[in-house]
Amino acid sequence: MMGHSEPATDALPDDPSSNQAIRLQIIWTRLISVVEEQARLLMRTAFSPTVREAGDLSAGVFDTRARLVAQAVTGTPGHVNSMAAAVGHFLDAFPIDTMRPGDHFITNDPWLASGHLHDVTVVSPAFRNDSVIALFACTCHQVDIGGLGQGPDGRSVFEEGLCIPRLPLARAGEVNQDLLDIIRANVRQPDEVIGDILSYIGANEASARRLIAMLDEFGEIGLDDIANDIIDRSSAAMQRAIARLPRGRYRYAMRIDGFDSPVDLEAELEVGEGRIRVDFEGSSAASHRGINVVLNYTRAYTAFGVRAAIAPEVPNNAGSLEPIDITAPVGSILNVERPWPVCARHIIGQFLPDVVFGALAAILPEEVPAEGASCIWGAQLRGGAVAAMAAGEGAERAGQSFETLFFNSGGAGARVGEDGMSGTAFPSGVKSIAAEIVESNYPVVIWRKELRCDSGGAGRWRGGLGQSLEIGTADGAPFQFFGMFDRVRHPARGRDGAFDGLAGRVALDDGTHMAGMGLQTVPRGRRLCLDLPGGAGIGLATERKRESVEADVRLGYISEGSAASDYGFDAGQALLCRKTDQG
Asked: What is the crossing angle of helices 295-310 and 352-360, to 10°?
């Protein structure tokens, strides 16, 4: 995310040397420490590797009006910005004056929180002298929430897992055991899921104690006055950033793979008087499979794209989000209503910043990157009797039962003056889970994981490289995977004469083609091969610096053939680059 750990300089009083400015800056920095500690506690105490290792979470503190004040450095835009809207829904069901110390509230309703059932949100009041002074919230990814499993195969949300409405998770310190028993009975990995949920309580409670100690230190009774100052100044700073842009309307369209037919994402971005409006009229209709997006998730990633491009230094909170208006037609793939399937909504949602960047390229060509792989390629794997039977074997031959997810990233788009980042989860920001962690927790072997040569789009500034992975079970038993892989048919497009990034590929180690979307089975003895897409380039490849091309060949980022055909090197020059490296 942006603006969450940087000093809130642009949001401070006019005289940054005044006592008020210095004091507010110190308090702001301490607030960031409080919520970052909240995130780190989640990572230290969670059972799921997606939270513990990858940081697929959000953590933040809210005022008593349910406005986001500060967020942790660790977290994803989809979680943070949808959580910013979710807390208000909790207050609708559980007003502040009905809360008691030790209360905690929970939901995973996609239309109220983070867009699919696999994200669980917990909100906890912070008390001082019997009064609520703030709210802490976290949203974390659950690998398993029952149903079909995380993938795009469902035809309604009812097939996608257990939906937890807004409910008390604990009342006055007493955990809602009935709710935990229902959850336990509906998931494949009950110990992990229940352990994760209880860890969210612990992180929120610890952060509340830390906030009280901080307020005591500064002689403050509550958070609301501080929140008003931070939010107002952040809003003013965001409006000033918008005012620097030329007024007008700017359009962009992108076509991506979709489940079984292409999806068109179309946007009009309007820069007005201190506000930006993004409208997705013209985007594809909803899919009958679970790649649809709810409006709060559409808003989350769209707002991230706007803020990352024009005001990355401004703190991300209710103030800086307020001047951004985002709409999408009801019934489009970016604004579905219940009960449309939404499980793999990230496939579409994580492309929205690229759509925003494409629109802003008309006025900020040197500030925004070219298109990238964007959507993470999460390897959601399942083993055991179900996989054995799907492979046509008897349950007696089944391998160990397991369900796991680990993230992999393609290449980011090039930026003016900089090559795209390779193997980087942009815009989600989640970390890759180390092969050693996956292999030590599950009967899985990652036989190969390396940067994918020639996958970055050639250009004056090259696109980032994707990765190549080869995955199997430790004993060779059959296993299943949920394909959630886009840019197999529609690669990232180059800008200003540059080449497209290389498209992705899904196959078995014997060359058998596999689909990018949907639940599929890997037979006994075979391995799954994922070639992740690369980012697009910017500018003519023939204008790339000679020393940059030579370095790319030496490092194995591009081949001798690409150096010759794409960058204009003759075969002898390209071969010399490689031989020089081999010494």
From this structure: 40
Give burial (CB, 10 Å; 0-12/13-18/19+) of 582. Answer: exposed
Contact yes or no for 444/67 (Cβ under 8 A): no
C-alpha of 67 from chain center: 21
364-385 confidence digits (pLDDT tens):
999 999 999 999 999 999 999 9
Alpha-carbon dihedral sign for residues 78, 80, 81, 82? positive
Alpha-helix residue ranges (DSSP H) falling in 6-155: 19-45, 49-52, 77-93
- Return d(Cα 486, Cα 206) in angstroms, integer: 39
According to DSSP, the β-strands at 379-383 and 479-484 are: antiparallel
Are 245 and 275 in contact by the 8 Å Cβ rule? The answer is: no
Cis peptide before 427 (omega within 30 of 0): yes
Locate 535 and state its tokens.
């980012």
Q: Give tens-digit pLDDT for 230-264.
A: 999 999 999 999 999 999 999 999 999 999 999 99
User: How far apart are the C-alpha atoms of 521 and 480, rounded to whole Å?
Assistant: 4
Please provide the DSSP assignment of 301-334 as one string: HHHHHHHHHH-TTS--SHHHHTTEEEE--TTBTT
Nearest to 211 by CA among 105, 127, 315: 127
Residue 512: per-residue pLDDT? 98
Torsion angles phi and psi, residue 261, rounded to 5: -155, 155
In 3D, which of 305, 301, 185, 314 has the Cα closest to residue 241? 314
Sign of the C-alpha dihedral, residues 212, 81, 270, 492?
positive
Characterize the bridge pairing of strands 174-175 and 467-473. unpaired
Question: pTM above the 0.90 mark?
Answer: yes
379-383 sheet: strands from edge to edge: 402-406, 379-383, 479-484, 517-522
- Distance between CA atoms of residues 300 and 341, nearest Å: 19
Share the mean pLDDT of the chain. Answer: 94
Q: What are phi and psi of 488, to 5 degrees?
A: -85, -35
Instruction: Find residue 324's DSSP bridge partners.
Output: 276
The two three-digit tokens of residue 375, written as one number: 């959507």
In the predicted model, is pLDDT for residue 399 greater than 90?
Answer: no
534 contacts: CB under 8 Å, gap ≥ 6: 373, 410, 411, 420, 452, 454, 455, 456, 457, 463, 464, 465, 466, 491, 492, 501, 502
Q: Rounded to whole angstroms, how far apart are CA atoms 13 and 22?
A: 9
> How many other CB atoms are there within 10 angstroms of residue 246's CB atom?
9
* Closest listed residue to residue 142, CA positions, set 176, 193, 93: 193
* Predicted pLDDT of residue 581: 52
How many angstroms separate the Cα of 512 from the Cα of each of 259, 466, 482, 509, 532?
Answer: 20, 21, 17, 7, 17
pLDDT at res. 571: 55
Q: What is the DSSP letter of 259?
A: S
